[in-house]
Design goal:
This protein is α+β, with helices and mostly antiparallel strands and 422 residues long. The protein contains twelve helices and 17 strands. A hairpin with a 4-residue loop joins strand 11 and strand 12. The structure holds one RNA strand of 90 nucleotides.
RNA sequence: GGAGGGGUCGCAUAGUGGUCUAGUGCGGCGGUCUUGAAAACCGCUAUGCCCGCAAGGGUAUCGUGGGUUCAAAUCCCACCCCCUCCGCCA
């Protein structure tokens, strides 16, 4: 959420953001300003009436009982006027809030314009791509061959994009998660198991709703399944005031992630690169206000993910996402794409964003600054490891001619003695 | 799921219709005293929004949302959360 004062004073900047993020038609800034000015108008009227009402009530208690009747009838009149005005005010506030929740964040200055993924820029490529003296298989052929991935029975039980992992597949998948947790904990992050079903406030607060509501599964009791631990982690301190000395807050959560993948029916039909359920270790950081602090941490979170990929010996490239391929709440976003030999291409495995106070305003997370003032924190997040997609990358990059898979060295401590999947 | 108890200022507690401008204690901040400190004493001690250059004023907030009333922390209704016991259960 943006500050209403900011929107009022910079309508053109906000309109441009709406357009650049390809959200034209989803929110009308002129309408919003109009609604706001009517709301403020009503608010002033209501508060004036309330002051009058309070004054009259106060008088009644101080005056002799026989003199009360006249004042009471006067106060009753004011009360009746107020009832009507207050219900108008409530409606007005609700429509204003609804509009405000649809206003996106402003992209940072160095974010390129683009309508979609073709506008993204390659920042750099890292790592050495593996070379094979045979035709590399894709992760499905490998997984089926080793009997560690079963999508046939997965779809039988869970529908399209359902899958089972089996035996060493389970081990490899969990090894990646455990390794990621150790890596990030050693960097001073708190690691958390988070709620997988959370309330609407958390989704709206992190900016997944209202925009991405269709992409989520909603269950009973007004809860929805998280598509990322980001939702739970970023909401962890909702409605709280932190101390500046306790910032930055560094959290890493592990959880299943549930995504409906509406509108991706034609993509990734085969394999387990795109599933309705996967597991992810996610980094979330809360920092003091200021663009530079956030930009530093944005890079830091990127380096954490890069370190993981480097240690795994995977080749990847860093992408700067364009305006049209960013989330509404994001100010700037890097994606990391990891090399998949079978597809002879890079596929997204990480997504690194900063938000400034966009999420913190929605979630009401503040901190007491050293000078005593209250400020909103700034939030950031990045993937650390998402599997089975990352597992698929490991499988493809570490495959051997006979269809077996060598376990990367850094995962060996987590593999219970298994050095090779065969 | 059943029965009972509870949610008040950072913490603890008082407060059953108007004097609540929410009291008191603790903690925190400032001051007096002191060589310094402690103790004692004095003062301060929330947040959002609106109006205002400011000083300041207004308004809302006692778990949340409704309602009754001229007036609600206090009465009524619904919901949420916490605790105890029972039942069920990984």
């Amino acid at each position: 959420m943006l500050d209403t004062k900011f929107i009022r004073e910079n309508p053109e900047i906000v309109k441009k953001a709406v357009k650049d993020k390809q959200l034209a038609g989803t929110v009308d800034i002129d309408e919003l300003l109009d609604v706001e000015s009517r709301y403020l108008d009503l608010l002033r009227k209501v508060e004036t009436k309330r002051a009058l009402k309070n004054e009259l009530s106060d008088g009644i208690s101080k005056v002799a009982p026989e003199a009360r009747e006249k004042l009471i009838s006067e106060a009753t009149q004011v009360k009746n006027d107020l009832t009507e005005l207050e219900s108008e005010l409530k409606i007005s506030k609700e429509s204003l809030d609804k509009l405000l929740l649809k206003v996106p964040n402003i992209p940072a200055n160095d974010v390129p314009y683009g309508e979609g993924e073709e506008g993204n820029e390659v920042i750099r490529e890292e790592g050495k791509k593996p070379t094979f003296d045979f035709e590399p298989k894709d992760h499905m052929d490998l997984g089926v061959g080793l009997d560690i991935i079963d999508t046939e029975r997965g779809t039988k039980i869970a529908g399209f994009r359902g899958y089972f992992l089996k035996n060493d597949g389970v081990l490899l998948h969990r090894a990646l998660m455990d390794y990621a947790l150790d890596l990030i904990r050693n960097k001073g992050f708190d690691i958390l198991e988070v709620p997988w079903m959370v309330n609407r406030d958390a989704f709206v607060g992190t900016g997944y709703f209202p925009w991405g509501e269709e992409d989520h599964y909603t269950v009973q009791d007004d809860l929805s399944l998280i598509g990322s631990a980001e939702v739970s982690l970023t909401s962890y301190y909702a409605n709280e005031v932190l101390e500046e000395k306790d910032l930055p807050v560094k959290l890493a959560g592990v959880s299943p992630c549930f995504r409906r993948e509406i509108g991706t029916y034609g993509k990734d039909m085969k394999g387990i690169l795109r599933t309705h359920q996967f597991t992810k270790v996610e980094q979330v950081v809360l920092v003091p206000e200021g663009e530079e602090v956030s930009r530093d941490w944005h890079e830091q979170l990127l380096r954490n993910a890069e370190e993981l990929l480097k240690q795994l010996g995977l080749s990847y490239r860093v992408m700067l996402m364009c305006t049209g391929d960013m989330g509404p709440g994001q100010r700037k976003k890097f994606d990391i794409e990891t090399w998949f030999p079978s597809q002879n291409t890079y596929r997204e495995t990480h997504s690194d964003s900063y938000f400034l106070d966009f999420q913190a305003r929605r979630l009401n997370i503040k901190y007491r600054a050293k000078d005593g003032s209250l400020k909103y924190v700034s939030t950031l997040n990045n993937t650390l490891a998402a599997s089975p997609r990352l597992m698929a990358a490991v499988m493809e990059n570490y495959q051997q001619k006979d269809g077996s898979i060598k376990v990367p060295d850094v995962l060996l401590p987590y593999m219970r003695g298994v050095k090779e999947l065969r």
